[in-house]
Amino acid sequence: MLGGLQQKLDLTLTPEETDAYVERELGKVIETLEKKGEPCPGALQVLSDLHKEGKYGLAVVSSSALSRVQASIKKVGMDFFFPPNHIYSAATSLPKPTSKPNPAIYLHACEDIGVAPADCVAVEDSRSGALAAKNAGIRLIGYVGPYDEDEKEHMRKVLKEECGAVVVMEHWEEFRECMAKVEAV
Predict the structure, then answer these.
(1) CATH says 38-183 is which class?
(2) pLDDT digits (tens, 9 = 90+) for 12-26
(3) What stretch of H or E contains 61?
(4) How far apart are CA 18 and CA 119, in angstroms?
(5) One GO molecular-function annotation for this sequence (predicted)?
(6) How far is 179 from 58, CA to CA, in rounded Å?
(7) Which residue ranges make up each domain of the chain?
(8) How far is CA 181 from CA 1, 106, 135, 140, 154, in A?
(9) What whole-number distance in Å separates Cα of residue 27 and Cα of residue 10?
(10) What pTM was estimated for this model as a whole?
């Protein structure tokens, strides 16, 4: 965004000035997350059940900066379920930062954990994240829970038809049923 603004406004920032703006923005985002972040309804129970069962390994794979991801997970009480070395950021975990839909962060996470992408399942709520999973060869559960009612149908279509989601869930109480459909594929 900052690069686009510089071009649009015909401004030039030094790398130091750019870094300062990025850090300031990140700080504000984290501050807001720490005040207002809430878990998706039902997600904590699903994670707790999965953790107790120990059948699946769990990881977080995000395009956001690692500090932002960690703050979000901690704020909503999910940090217990994800070991720090299983939290990945396309912005900070890769030698060359990238962003979804580039599958690099998913491929990096799979390699780091030691699992094949074909043996994984991603839960994604955005087009870019879903395409990253698809492009990495990871089966996908689309998630439309965070969207307003008028946006859900559009996102269902995007996640299913464009991004190849095996199934789309609206609420985390549907996770077991969705996972059974993914495992049947």
Answers:
(1) alpha beta
(2) 888 787 777 667 776
(3) strand 60-62
(4) 40
(5) phosphatase activity
(6) 14
(7) 1-36, 38-183
(8) 39, 22, 20, 11, 22
(9) 26
(10) 0.84
